[in-house]
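QA checklist item 7 of 12: single-chain prediction sanity check.
[x] sequence parsed
[x] length recorded as 110
[x] structure emitted
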Amino acid sequence: MTFYRVASLSEVPPNAMKAFTISGREILVANINGNLYAIDNRCSHRKGDLSKGVIDGTTVTCPVHGSKFDLSSGKALSGPKFGPIKLKTSDLNSYKVKVEEGSIMVELPE
């Protein structure tokens, strides 16, 4: 596992999120009240761009079909809903995050 520099801390202000491509992976970095989280950026249902979704606490909602994921763990909280039909979706990968000299660092497998 290796830590990669993603961005400066000022690029992801509190209560915001932003997508980055690191070593060929799309990663969503979220800053929730000063706590940084990193998960896969693409929804496991239909690959919706989570960086365009909505944050509610540590939950991000996919803008495409409404799947919800926990930013702290990548766990799928609910799948997409189509009227009364609820579908399942898979968990996303979650990554360790640290701040070093004002830079956001994300740990990824080599």
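[x] summary fact logged: The chain has a mean pLDDT of 93.
[ ] second reviewer sign-off
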